[in-house]
Write a structure and sequence with these properties.
The chain has a 3-stranded antiparallel β-sheet with strand order 1-2-3. The radius of gyration is 25 Å and the shape is elongated. The protein contains 4 helices and 3 strands; from the N terminus they run αβββααα. It has 2 domains: 47 residues, no CATH class; 70 residues. With 147 residues, it is mainly alpha-helical.
Amino acid sequence: MDTRPTRSRQSYNKDRLVEQLEQIATNVSKRGIFVVSKNASGFYDIINYVDKSLVIGNLPAQTVANTFCERYNKGARLQDPAQTRRVAKILLKVAKLSSDCMYYTHTQSITTDNDKAEIAGMRKHDARIHIVYLCDELNRELAKLPS
C-alpha cells in the first residue's frame, strides 16, 4: 500500500492572489465601519469609526440605533443628509409622542377628576394616531434605501 498523497498540489498565481487581497482590503476600508455610541444628552449616535464623523445623531432608542448601524455596515445607507435629517426628525417625534402617551396613561390612573381623565384619554388617542402616521412615514423613507 502506498501512503503517499495522490492528489496533486494546486499551483496558485501568487501575484494575482496578492492583487485580489489588496482589492478586498481597499473595498472594505472604503465602505466604513459604523458604531453606536451614547451621547451626553442620553440619546444614541451612529458614528463612522474610521473618520469619527457623525452619521445620524440623537436617535431615541438603542434598538433603533443598532438596527440602523447594522444596515449601514451591510451597505444600505441613507441617500443624502436631508434624508438622514428627515429620518432622525421622525424618530424624535415618535419618542416624544411615546413619552406623552405614558404621561397621559399615568394621568388617567391617578386623577380623580373625570374631565381631566377624559381629556388625557383623548390626547393619548391623538398621540397614538400620530405615532401610527409617523411609523408609516418612516417606512416610506426607509423603503428608499437600497437593500
